[in-house]
Amino acid sequence: MKTFLAAMFAAALAGPAHAQEAYPSKPVTIVVPAAAGGPSDTVARLVAEAMTRDLGQQVLVENAGGAGGSLGAGQVAEAAPDGYKLLLYHVATSTFGALYPSLPYQPGEAFSSIGLVTDVPMTLVGRKDLAPADLGALLAWLKGEGAGATFGTAGVGAVSDLCGRLFTQATGTELTVVPYKGTGPAMTDLIGGQIDLMCDQTTNTANQIKAGEIKAYAVTTKEPIAILPGVPTMAGTGLPGFEITAWHAIWAPKDTPEPIRRRLSASLQKALTDPVVIERFAGLGTAPVAAELATPAALDERFRSEIGRWGQLLANAKQP
Ligand code: MLT
């Protein structure tokens, strides 16, 4: 009898056999639903490096481009809710429901929010030998001999595509969309002169503009941005009210347990105070969000409101 009681006591001390393993107990994968070398990839790799230091497990970035990011996002929507496969993407995620009615997942219900990351300005850029010298001349050109100029995007719903839609709607111009698996490869063709224009994030364009590899026509923010002095705003040069930025966030699959979401949000918040992240973001024209925005509640609120906003906007906007 004594042996039996001793065994029971030992088992009680050991805790439940199914006790949750400490999370994370293995590497974590962040899926970026756009090709390597583009703006989303740049943000993800900086954040992943900092989260690796905090979590004590490798945080890996995996690229899965295509269809504006809706394919890669679907990989995470269908993943196990165990905290080992996450999505890092941006405002485009809130457009997939409106633009891809036959998706095998409902973006508004398929994810658990972890937190917002950064809000990246965008730039309207052209190949360096494009004739128009400024936005006014570009608009005139697009209404004349430049009608149907080629415009690189990361596919329907990508933020480069959303910017193009707002631009053609605001200007009454026509563009020929050239979709890529991300604006990383699109940038290669813009620099090579294979396409005429793009609207892309400063995390992908700022260094190329400074190097004279591409021409900057305007920024899409309310105010000019410090790292691109002399580049006017769209709103201030003939397109009043034109504004679009790429808010980035991290999601997990829906039903991811609360303790895991809290642990990931805490790690994200710490990553966003990392001096390397702050410095690299600043050099690319952006900044980490405040800690209270790198939380599930803040992302839930932003995501819900953006799904509604873009649902209305896209009901009117035609393909660029
Ligand atoms: C990218 O990383 O390729 C871009 O974020 C795609 C896009 O324009 O949304």
The strand count comes to: 10
Give me the CATH architecture of the largest domain, please: 3-Layer(aba) Sandwich
Q: The CATH topology of the largest domain, please?
A: D-Maltodextrin-Binding Protein, domain 2
Calculate the mean pLDDT score and round it. 93
Q: What would you give as the CATH superfamily of the largest domain? A: Bordetella uptake gene, domain 1
**SSE string:** HEHEHEHEEHEHEHEHEEHHH
Task: Output the structural class.
Answer: alpha/beta
- The gyration radius over C-alpha positions equals 22 Å
Q: Sheet with the most strands?
A: 5 strands, mixed
Strand % is 15-25%
Count of alpha and pi helical runs = 11
Draw up the topology in text.
Elements: H1 2-14, E1 28-32, H2 39-55, E2 59-63, H3 70-77, E3 85-90, H4 96-99, E4 111-120, E5 122-127, H5 135-142, E6 149-153, H6 159-171, E7 175-179, H7 183-191, E8 197-201, H8 202-210, E9 214-219, E10 246-253, H9 258-271, H10 275-283, H11 296-316
Parallel strand pairs: 1-2, 1-3, 6-7, 6-8
Antiparallel strand pairs: 3-10, 4-10, 5-8, 5-9
Helix pairs in contact: 2-9, 2-10
Bound molecules: D-malate.
D-malate binds next to helix 2, helix 6 and helix 7.
